[in-house]
Amino acid sequence: MINNEFTGCTISPHKCKCFTTLSKVEKELLDNNSVKIEYKKGEIICKQGGLASHILYVESGLTKVFIEEGVSTLVLKIIPDCNLLGLSSISENNNTFQYSAMAYIDSLIRQIDISVFRQLIRQNPKFASEIIEIFIANSAQINSRFFCLTHKQSYGRLADILLCLADRIFKANVFNLDLTRKDLAELTGISQETVVRMLKKFKDEKIIQIEGKRFNIIDYKKLKMISKAG
Asked: Which stretches of the chain are assigned E, i.e. beta strand?
């Protein structure tokens, strides 16, 4: 959460620092038991229910984490670079992925042998502590997101996502957005048609400016007010 406010933002502000805690020998162990793979936009990185033989680290890019039930899909969060995927499978009692992940844009993923990752947790307290911090940040973010999905109106949810993208991904009010209107609909939990209509309303009220993929948040303060009001 930002400033203790509830937000529907799907993008965690946390950056993984766990690898900085490793000794030289431990870093060599990790390097010798991991590989880097490039995923194109739209490619599935891991599949819900699949065997979790690796922990995944996003070296660069942007990935969507979601759960599926029949034809229904729920987006849990967006993982930017310097973050981990698959941590819910580090318990030896759970050897499958609890969610699916897809590359939102071209992404570089490091696959780390899960047995080596577990070994590092057992032998390095600082590494383990950082993993716990990631779990705490993820839990707080998901709780906040689901509160907003059940209590905020559509305009508040869309404002949350636009602010989230500006503050946590692009760190600027002007950015090129590779996500489609369908993607924005998934992130906000509303229909694609409603997203298109609301974006037009934001544009007409001069809150944002859109030219193709280029977004410009003109009135950040007003967008923030819409987010808070829900």
From this structure: 34-39, 44-46, 54-60, 62-69, 72-80, 83-85, 100-103, 107-113, 174-176, 208-211, 214-217
Residue type at 89 in one-letter notation: S
Structural domains of the chain, with CATH: 18-144 (2.60.120.10), 152-229 (1.10.10.10)
What's the pTM?
0.81
Asked if 178 and 185 touch (Cβ cutoff 8 Å), the reply is no
Alpha-carbon gap, residue 96 to 24, rounded angstroms: 30
The pLDDT tens digits of the residues spanning 36-70 come to 999 999 999 999 999 999 999 999 998 989 988 87
Residue 27 and residue 62 in contact, taking contact as beta carbons nearer than 8 Å? no
Q: What is the pLDDT of residues 107-163, one digit of tens each?
A: 999 999 999 999 999 999 999 999 999 888 887 777 777 777 777 888 988 998 899
